[in-house]
Specification:
By secondary structure, the protein is of the alpha+beta class. The chain is built from seven helices and 18 strands.
Length: about 280
């Protein structure tokens, strides 16, 4: 299935701190012409938002080029994919995308307010796979299966009684802004203490992250969804899958997975579909 390319009607700007660096950051998303793609501009470098430019998947997804990096792009990438926005130039002042409230919702809301417009030019073609593709590590797995539409499913299992085992499935016909975008990043009090000791998570606080098992935390009053943690895992998965550069038409299951496996799967899908295109060209 094909559709028209889309961009913003006008620029939108966000300011805040990076959750890992704790440094102030400013980000402006600008309309871009058809065929431009999603591109970050930072400190004189132009960095396409594709898997080819991923330089780190440690706690977040980081892209970079010639020593210039932009960290924690996954929530913004999920918002762009969820709204089917194909062409934007994202100017970043700082080394990390602002965490805002820890979800993709502020990005979605502001871009919807700015307006989304269709563009003339070649239509966007969805990316299909012909056979299952998977990556695994220990008890973690990400599997892509051929499907007629875009479906994502996440499964998590934590020792914490406040989270435990959760599953959530997002179907392509569901509203991303309602079902996935509001889910916030999360962690556990035992992990947060270690992150802080290693100089990470310096921009995290109770306004932009759910911290389970900390004294006084009540999930019933704090959560936007009963299964908010696994929904956020699906949000991260959607953001990393958007690094393919084209909409994916497949069922993707992520079990106890993170950014590294997400990006590993993206690379395998890109390789497999490139081989498919070559085979079709020789037919």
């Amino acid at each position: 299935m094909c559709r028209a390319q889309r961009t913003l009607a006008q620029s939108v700007t966000f300011s805040g701190v990076g959750i890992h660096t704790g440094a102030d950051s400013k980000l402006t998303i600008n309309p871009a012409p058809a065929g431009h793609g999603i591109i970050f501009a930072s400190r004189g470098q132009i960095i396409p938002a594709t898997y080819k430019y991923v330089v780190s998947t440690d706690r977040s997804t980081t892209i970079g080029k010639e020593g210039v990096e932009v960290r924690t792009i996954e929530h913004l990438m999920a918002a762009l994919g969820g709204l089917s926005i194909d062409n934007v130039l994202i100017e970043v002042e700082g080394s990390e995308v602002p965490i805002l409230d820890g979800s993709a919702l502020p990005f979605c809301q502001s871009m919807l307010e700015a307006g989304i417009v269709e563009q003339e030019g070649d239509e966007v073609e969805e990316l299909y796979i012909k056979e299952p593709i998977f990556v695994a590590s220990g008890e973690s797995l990400v599997l892509a299966m051929p499907d007629s539409q875009y479906n994502l499913e996440g499964a998590v299992s934590f020792a914490s009684p406040q989270v435990g085992r959760q599953r959530f499935r997002y179907c392509g016909y569901d509203d991303f802004v309602s079902h996935v975008a509001p889910a916030r990043t999360f962690g556990f009090w035992s992990e947060v203490k270690v992150l802080l000791e290693h100089g990470l998570g310096r921009g995290g606080d109770l306004s932009n992250a759910l911290v389970f098992d900390r004294p006084g935390f009540d999930p019933k009053s704090a959560l936007r969804f009963q299964d908010e943690p696994v929904r956020h895992k699906v949000l991260d998965l959607a953001g990393d899958l958007n690094l393919l550069g084209r909409p994916l038409c497949a069922f993707v299951l992520a079990v106890r997975a993170g950014h590294k496996l997400h990006v590993d799967l993206v690379r395998k899908i890109a390789e497999a579909t490139a081989n498919q295109d070559m085979e079709e060209a020789h037919c």
